[in-house]
Amino acid sequence: MRVRLEDVARAAGVSPKTVSRVLNDEANVRGPTREKVLAAMAAMDYRPHLPARSLASNRSFLIATLYDNPSSNYLAEIQAGVLEACDLHHYSMMVRPLQVQSDDFVERVDRLILHHHPDGMVLTPPITDHAGLLQRLRERRVPYACVSPIERDGRIGVFIDEPEAARRIVAHLVALGHRRIAHVIGHPAHGASQWRLSGYRRALDDAGLPRDPGLEVEGDFSFGAGVAAARRLFSLPRGQGPTAVFAANDDMAAGVIWAAGEHGLAVPRDVSVCGFDDTPIARQIWPTLTTIHQPSREMGRIAALQLLDSLRRRGAGAMVQAPFSLQLRESTGPAAA
């Protein structure tokens, strides 16, 4: 027989209303009581009846995660973190791919809201900074949390200090003796592209190295863009090409390593390569990739937790700064003489 909410209440020695409050993640339940109810749920393998739960609380218990990003590795990590937070608080997650540049972008999100009634949304870049969408969400009174937004005032979500992270990885290349360091820039609509470019330039300035526009090549965060950018860089006349390449994410860095092999260049003997994000591909390619560890899974979890906190308590939720770290691996080495 199906375990009922009343059965859990009886086992935990509390009222059915208290069990309901725990299920709905309401804030006005004392810690010990909450733990007792959760323990009873686990022991009895209780599964709430979602339609009844939604009807009783006038909530969908659904979080929508929106994305428009070619980096599948990054997105998988973010989504895993969001799902972890949703599972913890008995929410479901829906994932929706979108195209920010499409004429009906805001209308498509509007239809999603009308059809599925999500309690809130987790927005990933570049969607996280789309002014028209943010205005529509405010009009619809749909709470949202942002991952790595350009504008942070008055918002909740998560970010890291991307300019400093980029400066630090380029400073690592400078310390290895590299003087001609190229940068494969990310998608122009992403705030991350601007921040990582600014960190790259600041590291060159700190080292007293001249900026060479020919060593700054546009990309879009995809493997193919890394290949195309590297082909341009490795085709520069002798003495004008780079001895090191900093790509704005790991997928593009993997493309740079692929193109290096195509051009007969050994990594890191002939050219050093580094990326950003520390997604699984950084450890799956050879040589393994020096990169910035951005805790993408944890960032997805933090963004969702801030959103869920704001749903529980009006005015709650914050913009949280997550830490980063430099991961030194086999793809970088001393500059060739």
From TrEMBL:
InterPro entries tied to this protein: HTH_LacI (IPR000843), LacI/GalR-like_sensor (IPR046335), Lambda_DNA-bd_dom_sf (IPR010982), Peripla_BP_I (IPR028082)
Origin: domain of life: Bacteria
UniProt keyword list: DNA-binding, Transcription, Transcription regulation
One term of GO molecular function: DNA binding
Residue ranges constituting the HTH lacI-type domain according to the UniProt record: 3-57
Name this protein carries in UniProt: LacI family DNA-binding transcriptional regulator
Native source species: Fulvimonas yonginensis
